[in-house]
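>> received
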Amino acid sequence: MATRLNQEEEAEIHGDVLETVLSHVPSVDLVSASHVSKWWRGAVSSSLRHQNPPKPWLILHTQSTRPPHATAVHAYDPRSDVWIRIRRPPIEYVAALHSSSAASLLYMLSPSAFAFSTDPLHSDWTIASPPRVWRMDPIVARVGGAVVVASGACYFEDDPLAVEIYDLRTRAWRACESMPPTLKDSAAAAWLSAAATEEKLLLVEKQTGLTHWFDPISNSWSGPIVLKPSQPVRSCHVSFSNSSGLIMIGICPIENKETVKLWRIGENDFSFEEIGEMPEECVAGLKSDSVDFSIDVRVASNLVYVYNSPAAEEVVACEITTGGGGCRWWKVRNVVARDGMILNTSVFTCAEVGIGDLQRAITAKSWQFEVV
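>> returned
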């Protein structure tokens, strides 16, 4: 009896040590670790729950502008603070890749096809007929069981504010109520920021904060309101996640310099609560040699990634702490940024990538993951 108790105690201590060791292992290596034994599988699961939980990845898709337009994929895993090279079979290209700021969504749009992917690693693609209205710079976002395509209509179209929805269940397009006339002068993704929930799509003018929201179920627009914190802000971006709620990130001019701030927005009264301000050294890294300082944002769960599209040599990550206690900032060096990238186009997505997603990509899709 005593021998059995001693063995259980040793096993319990060994389990704690194993979980601690696994908490320092990159997420992609935990897939193979979970196959060692039933004991190891439990240790991997426990380590991810209690020791070092997963955090949303920043995924960089770099597409060659020359045929056959092959795409290199790299991902930053903040849980282990490593970059990962992802080797995957080529996808069926219909046009250049674009990403949506409103969700973890990649899409391609051509006169003959509309292709999009919404899963975290973008392993599954849907190819559909194109929307009726030809667009060059649209807002594309998944809202519940539909993909909403708004703005970006070409000048020769009859309705520059046309909105169309692709129903994921029926796999068919339907026209919706057009965007409000107040957005006519900014009806393109370059001038609008979008946040998507399961029920609504929020569109915000980046420079003014003018805001409307669209309900696909009732096929109706609401607003306008103006989202403004208690200080001047330009290049504002909104996003929504179940963990952080509705947030805004924007550039603020303060005493002859510019900083970047983050606010939480009340979903009922649209009140503002400042979460944090980006450290000066992080702002300096984003500016780099760029003449026109602007930012773009990708958000998932409680993690915000901020970058300057023209440069993107450095990304700033911000983790919103639970309980409303502020946030933590750090710099992420883009290991993919190299001289000669002018021949490529790069887009970012951000998503919560779980062990199940990695397992499926490795076993069912034959993807390879390599820490770089």
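>> The chain is about 15% helix and 40% strand.
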